[in-house]
Amino acid sequence: MARILLAGCGAIGTQLGEALQAAGHEVFGLRRSAVAMPFPTLHADLTQPLPAELLPAQLDYVVHTGTPAQRSDSGYEAGYPRALRHLLAALAPATSTASLKRFFFVSSTAVYHQDDGSWVDETSPTRPTRFNGIRVLEAENVLRQSGVAGTCVRFGGIYGAGRNGLMRRVQAGAEVQVAPAKYTNRIHQDDCTGVLHYLINEQEQGRPLQPVYLAVDDDPADESTLCSWLADRLGAPAPVTTSPGGHTGQNKRCSNRLLRTQGYRFIYPTFREGYAAQCKVD
């Protein structure tokens, strides 16, 4: 079985770690705060150089699932490109890049600049203009230029397991855009961990992986459709529709075809299955 480091081990990292441990892998978590976890945990701030000899030796996989401490350009710079540089620097003396099977970086669909509702995939151009997309794409390039075998997994909007911001918005009477349609690209947290676990298994089975995957569900539904369905499910007021006209930032439809072709099957293929399950819990 593999030795796996989960860096920036928050909700997704913890859930993934539990699944990997249950499958027989040796798991280590790395996080800023000293929180008890169900597997060995290392404590360090990735925005700073890591202490010498902190990381376990002979790692097979590293999965970076960290998030920035602040939603600002400086926060994203520290939480993504800087964090990856520090992690890769600490990894070099602990684990030979030749022996590391794969470094997974959890990226974001924010790297896409498209704002006209067009479809994008892993081959689409990425010219983000907002700080979040710029810094996440910078981190992807840090990994790409490191010489380490790496895969960037671009998640859409994550929901589930207490991530109920949209549900609260709908319950309060959401305002939604209808003309032009504003598309959403979502993925349930269970599928976030499912995708990462699946890709590790694929590597373990010797199947080739791509450098980038788009991880979103099957239905990049428009905001009006999503919120109207959710309002009906929650017994909330029907959303108020607006038509601002023109293009609004980061409005695209993300295709998961490559991930599907790899063989992954979604636990929650669309928002309907995902939010139906979440409504029962929350």
Written overview of the protein:
Strands 3-2-1-4-5-7-11 form a 7-stranded parallel sheet, with helices on both faces. A two-stranded parallel ribbon has the order 6-13. It has a single domain, classed as Rossmann fold (3-Layer(aba) Sandwich), CATH 3.40.50. Helix 2 links the parallel strand 4 (61-64) and strand 5 (102-108). It is built from 8 helices and 13 strands. Helices cover 36% and strands 18% of the residues.
Q: Work out the helix count.
A: 8
Listing every helix as H and every strand as E from the N terminus to the C terminus, the arrangement reads EHEEEHEEHEEHEEHEHEEHH
Q: In CATH terms, what is the fold-level topology?
A: Rossmann fold
The chain-level mean pLDDT equals: 92
Q: What's the gyration radius in Å?
A: 19 Å
Terminal CA distance reads: 36 Å
Largest sheet: 7 strands, parallel
CATH superfamily name? NAD(P)-binding Rossmann-like Domain
CATH class: Alpha Beta
Uncertain segments are: none
Instruction: Write down the overall geometry.
Output: globular
Q: Tell me the number of strands.
A: 13
Sheet-strand content, in percent, reads 15-25%
CATH architecture: 3-Layer(aba) Sandwich
- Helix percent reads 25-40%
Number of domains: 1
Give the structural class.
alpha/beta
Strand order, biggest sheet? 3-2-1-4-5-7-11
